[in-house]
Amino acid sequence: MTDPSAVSAVAAGGQGAAAGGQGEAGGAGDVLVRSARREDMPRVHEMIHELAAFEGFPQGPAIALDDLLRDGFDSSPPWFFTLVAERGGGAGGAGGGELVGYALCNRAYSSWTARAFYVEDLYVVPSLRRAGVGRRLLGHLAQMAVAEGVSRVDWHVAEGNAAARAFYRGLGARDLRTSEGRAALRLDQPHIHALARTH
């Protein structure tokens, strides 16, 4: 995750964070967190690009809306799940309001602790950062974790984003570089293909 207010989650691999994190002053009373629906994804796709611009990548990610629909709704099982923060929607999460944030996550598995969640992105629109929306998104994810028997939630945060790091520490998150001496690694597609060709 990146900004505390733009809390991007580079939790177990992703890179996106603009939430509204640490020291959030409340003000999210009319915001409801719910599972994303197919019709929400165009706005989620826009927010993914807003997050990329916030993090200094205005060209944006290569992912297309069709990728999100295919992998999140047409695949069985889906490759990811998304929570959205909606302001001014209908009662009981009926929809129709303004989407002001999202958390894009996936299910993972640990050989040490079994079930896990990984947060790829956590984002809140600038006007509502520090208003409690980021905490509300993570709180909803924590409720899901309890209900599904998940024992850990992982993400990454930009090293230079001191505000986000402070926000996460306030939630009880620990820095695995310090506590376990772990570095995050990634194999990009060209290297994946090169490795695949050797076998």
From TrEMBL:
Protein name in the entry: N-acetyltransferase domain-containing protein
Domain N-acetyltransferase: 31-192
Organism annotation: Plutella xylostella
InterPro entries according to UniProt: Acyl_CoA_acyltransferase, Diverse_Substrate_AcTransf, GNAT_dom
Keyword Acyltransferase: yes
Pfam family, one: Acetyltransf_1
Assigned protein family: Belongs to the acetyltransferase family.
Keyword field: Acyltransferase, Transferase
Keyword Oxidoreductase: no
